[in-house]
């Protein structure tokens, strides 16, 4: 139980890296207010959920959690719903889960201390739901980064693209970028603290527009990569419409920029892309793939795909399968289309039955598995550099990640055990569709 002098909180995060990073900001804010983070709901006085509403399943998760722990309210525990579901559902959350005390969207985290004071003073319900148009909530003086080697930096918030299926423009508001100066200052600070890997984040990270006009996205990437101490720079997610050749050129010329691009395609059919309002055709997408394939360094490409968008015919779906063969992705996140509130596609005719969506998803995933089996196998015999992420004690294997974002599990002799955060050369000795195995060389 939380007493006045021992304020404890438990935070669970759902969804994307933006949410993971937002949670780091929330954790820092709570700590600055005298709270202590605990590992279980039972130990906590305040239970927070940072939520995701990208698909219905993700949204339902938080309501299940709230139902599961409702009884703890009797012990005086307080509940808070943060993030995208909070922004989307607003005060309706109190109706559905009356034991919730705080509903706070991601643009309002800076108001959390004030909201907590009100709750501590006995107020039963508070909300923080900004209109999302004005906020510039990049300030991260309290950010409590949870990984001491890899740090996230949000460079652009929100989304202006309004894809027909997507709830993000409604939950995260308009696109707004942070100045390149402030991004670089933060990256430099992180390098000084010992971080060697930086991940630049944004819903459409490459739609970045420096408010002072000093650097393009590609220039910003190179500048972060050139900072002393920075060994790896990643960025996610990219929108194909704004993906310029200069990004490929930056990866070619700056070794610290990881040779991996996540470029969500969503569908291989131009007709479906048009209905999705994705702002590019299949050919325009493939043009970007050609740039990457022609690069001097091999660039690994991953993507997101939605199957069963309203009106998607068998032929459209086959075009997506064919695209998988053409691109040969190293990874695909695939989803069944999920109708979302406020989005235009909600009103589209020709919904695809759930059974058919499941069938298409299974066919696509099976095909991609075979592609990945081949793609991963190519590395056997190679020496690859990994950043050591930790150890799987049960299997006696270390876990590393390659520049091209593959997981490489490896063994090391008793005498020469690596430390997390270090970079090691590993000989790849085997492969699976989603990971590599190897032995540490040096
Ligand atoms: N249904 C299914 N998948 C979706 N995504 C976004 N909105 C939906 C939706 N309504 C997927 C897209 C996006 C990823 C983050 O989630 O593929 O790139
Ligand atoms: Fe959603 Fe499209 Fe914006 Fe991505 S680009 S966040 S899919 S609206």
Question: What does the model show?
Answer:
By secondary structure, the protein is α/β, with parallel strands linked by helices. It has 4 domains: 4-133, Methylthiotransferase, N-terminal domain (Rossmann fold); 147-258, 2-Layer Sandwich (Transcription Regulator spoIIAA); 267-377, Transcription Regulator spoIIAA (2-Layer Sandwich), CATH 3.30.750; 383-440, OB fold (Dihydrolipoamide Acetyltransferase, E2P) (Beta Barrel). It has 13 helices and 18 strands. The protein has helices spanning 17-32, 56-69, 84-89, 92-96, 112-120, 168-171, 180-192, 217-225, 245-253, 270-275, 282-293, 314-327, 354-377; strands spanning 7-13, 35-37, 46-51, 78-83, 100-104, 126-128, 150-157, 176-177, 197-202, 232-236, 260-262, 300-307, 331-336, 383-392, 397-402, 407-411, 423-431, 435-440. The strands form 4 sheets. The chain has a 6-stranded parallel sheet, sandwiched between helices. It has a 5-stranded mixed β-barrel with strand order 14-15-16-18-17. Strands 8-7-9-10 form a 4-stranded mixed sheet, sandwiched between helices. The chain is globular. 5'-deoxyadenosine (5AD) binds next to strand 12.
């Amino acid at each position: 139980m939380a007493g006045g002098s021992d304020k404890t909180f438990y935070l669970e995060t759902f969804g994307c890296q933006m949410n993971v990073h937002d949670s780091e900001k929330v954790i820092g804010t709570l700590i600055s207010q005298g709270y202590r983070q605990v590992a279980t709901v039972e130990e906590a006085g305040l239970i927070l959920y940072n939520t995701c509403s990208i698909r219905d399943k993700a949204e339902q998760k938080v309501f299940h959690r709230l139902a599961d722990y409702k009884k703890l309210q009797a012990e005086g525990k307080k509940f808070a719903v943060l993030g995208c579901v909070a922004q989307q559902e607003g005060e309706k959350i109190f109706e559905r889960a009356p034991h919730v005390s705080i509903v706070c969207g991601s643009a309002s985290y800076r108001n959390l201390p004030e909201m907590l004071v009100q709750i501590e003073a006995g107020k039963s319900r508070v909300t923080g739901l900004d209109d999302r148009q004005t906020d510039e909530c990049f300030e991260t003086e309290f950010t409590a980064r949870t990984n001491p080697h890899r740090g996230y930096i949000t460079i652009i918030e929100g989304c202006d693209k309004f894809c027909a299926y997507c709830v993000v423009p409604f939950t995260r508001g308009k696109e707004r970028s942070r100045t390149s100066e402030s991004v670089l200052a933060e990256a430099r600070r992180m390098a000084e603290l010992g971080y060697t890997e930086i991940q630049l984040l944004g819903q459409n990270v490459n739609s970045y527009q420096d408010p002072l006009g000093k650097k393009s996205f590609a220039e910003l990437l190179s500048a972060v990569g050139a900072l002393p101490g920075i060994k790896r720079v990643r960025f996610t997610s990219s929108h194909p419409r704004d993906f310029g050749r200069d990004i490929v050129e930056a990866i070619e010329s700056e070794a610290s920029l990881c040779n991996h691009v996540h470029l969500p395609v969503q569908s291989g059919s131009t007709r479906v892309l048009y209905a999705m309002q994705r702002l590019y055709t299949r050919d325009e997408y493939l043009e970007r793939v050609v740039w990457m394939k022609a690069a001097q360094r091999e660039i690994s490409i991953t993507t997101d795909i939605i199957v069963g968008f309203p009106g998607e015919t068998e032929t459209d779906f086959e075009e997506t399968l064919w695209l998988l063969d053409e691109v040969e992705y190293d990874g695909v996140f695939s989803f069944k289309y999920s109708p979302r509130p406020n989005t235009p596609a909600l009103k589209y005719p020709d919904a695809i039955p759930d059974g058919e969506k499941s069938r298409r998803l299974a066919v696509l995933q099976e095909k991609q598995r075979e592609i990945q089996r081949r793609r991963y196998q190519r590395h056997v015999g190679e020496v690859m550099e990994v950043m050591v992420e930790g150890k799987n004690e049960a299997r006696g294997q270390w876990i590393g990640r390659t520049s091209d974002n593959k997981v490489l599990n490896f063994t090391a002799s008793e005498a020469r055990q690596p430390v997390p955060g270090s970079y090691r050369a590993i000989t790849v000795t085997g492969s699976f569709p989603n990971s590599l195995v190897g032995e540490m060389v040096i």
